[in-house]
Design brief:
Strand order of the largest sheet: 10-9-8-2-3-12-13-14
Helix content: 25-40%
Radius of gyration: 24 Å
Shape: globular
Order of helices and strands: HEEEEEHEEEHHEHEHEEEEHHEHHE
Distance between the termini: 48 Å
Length: 422
């Protein structure tokens, strides 16, 4: 185990153990932990941390609900919020963590600042599919139906031998469904689409239908387009990428590299190191089973969201993409998380107004979800006027299935006089 990966793993787990119990799983429950660690001049600091294993169904998606609550995705969303707030610190001439003013309305990452990603287990999707040696039993000639173990008559022609194929380790096979149309419509054991590698996949699980792509696919996309996302691309001159990945538990290192890097359309992007670290996360599935012995274990439905804010921090617990404790009668303005699309879009517009006009948005400006299944022109405006749109076209041209996902009530409008700003 490499020293850097071990150092990051121990730092993240020590940080998690010091967090309050709010949002943490019970004794017989397990979860996944992810974190982003910032390195500045040799000093390592946890800036975002999240736990989670759940997603909401397609019928529950809306702009003010976080549809994908896997720890890796929540951690990326928190990182974008961290960048947004750091940009605001720069505008207020306060001491920032990782950014400084560049030319025009853009920001740049400070020198000697790097970002490292940690996950307590391998991400779902393509990274979980590993290869083993061919299975001799699968290459034997099968007897005809009804013949049994009897010898084949001499007059019967011997069928051609079956083509050997690389067997995939079924202990590490993924439950994520291939996004290829033929596989998606008939994803059975006979179809063997779970054997395919380097294809886009949805989230695994037996819950409501969810078309969110796997964490392997999303991390691959972010490593190509930048972990800052589309909204913040217009404020940055270059994409921000992780400098290393530290992953706990048992997994195939080659499979992770294939899932995150080898599938990318541009092979000129420098591949960061991937460290395989020991599973020391107290609430991992393996440690949970060891602790509970014969008792039944299950994944927790709650998530933790932790964000560093100056000398302070924000610690939230969420369930089904909303703040924990939210009821059906609660207003969505009180239940939405600060990393949902509605909240992030509003913060991005506020920042853009400060940069271009020197003033913030009106007090009565708020995000309101559309009634129809269409996209917000304002949301697309942020992505179209930057280098991000060109890189995304290249990415989606290489992965045609990415645009095949079902789109439902995802984006928000900008103006409303009915809701006052909190």
């Amino acid at each position: 185990m490499d020293s850097l990966g071990k150092k990051i793993s121990e730092l993240c787990n020590q940080h998690y153990n010091q967090l309050p119990k709010k949002g943490k799983p019970a004794t017989n429950q397990w979860t996944v932990l992810s974190a982003v660690v910032m390195e500045h001049s040799g000093i390592y600091t946890v800036i975002t941390m999240a736990t989670g294993t759940k997603c909401v169904g397609e019928n529950q998606k809306c702009p003010h609900v976080v549809s994908d609550s896997h720890a890796e995705v929540l951690c990326l969303r928190l990182f974008r919020l961290f960048l947004l707030e750091d940009m605001m610190r720069c505008l207020r001439s306060e001491e920032s963590f990782c950014l400084e003013r560049g030319s025009g309305c853009q920001f740049v990452v400070k020198k000697n600042v790097y970002f490292h990603f940690y996950s307590s287990c391998v991400m779902c999707g393509d990274a979980t599919i590993s290869q083993t040696l061919p299975d001799p039993a699968e290459n034997k000639i099968a007897d005809n139906k009804g013949v049994g173990d009897k010898k084949r008559p001499a007059t019967q022609a011997t069928p051609p031998p079956q083509t050997k194929h690389v067997k995939l380790d079924e202990t590490s096979r993924t439950g994520a469904k291939s996004l290829l149309l033929d596989d998606f419509q008939s994803d059975t054991l006979k179809n063997r689409s779970w054997r395919r590698t380097s294809v886009l996949r949805t989230k695994p699980g037996r819950g409501p239908v969810c078309l969110s792509l796997s964490c392997s696919d999303k991390l691959m996309k972010r490593q190509f387009l930048g972990i800052q996302g589309g909204l913040l691309s217009r404020f940055l001159s270059h994409p921000i990428r992780f400098s290393s990945f530290s992953i706990g538990g048992e997994f195939c290192l080659d499979s992770v590299k294939r899932a995150l890097f080898d599938r990318l359309p541009d092979n000129t992007i420098v591949q960061p190191p991937v460290y395989k670290v020991e599973d020391i996360f107290v609430n991992s599935v393996s440690n949970c089973r060891s602790r509970c012995k014969d008792a039944e274990v299950q994944s927790t439905s709650s998530s933790i969201l932790w964000l560093k804010r100056g000398e302070e921090f924000q610690h939230l617990a969420s369930v089904k993409g909303k703040i924990q404790g939210a009821t059906k009668s609660s207003s969505w303005t009180k239940t939405m998380l600060p990393i949902c699309r509605t909240a992030m879009l509003h913060k991005a517009w506020s920042l853009n107004s400060l940069l271009e006009n020197g003033d913030s948005l009106p007090e009565n400006t708020q995000m309101v979800p559309f009634e129809e299944d269409n996209f917000s022109e304002q949301y697309q405006l942020f992505k179209s006027k930057s280098w991000y749109s060109v890189k995304k076209q290249e990415f989606c041209g290489h992965f045609e299935g990415w645009n095949r996902k079902m789109s439902r009530l995802i984006f928000s409008s900008i103006e409303s006089n009915d809701i006052t700003k909190k």
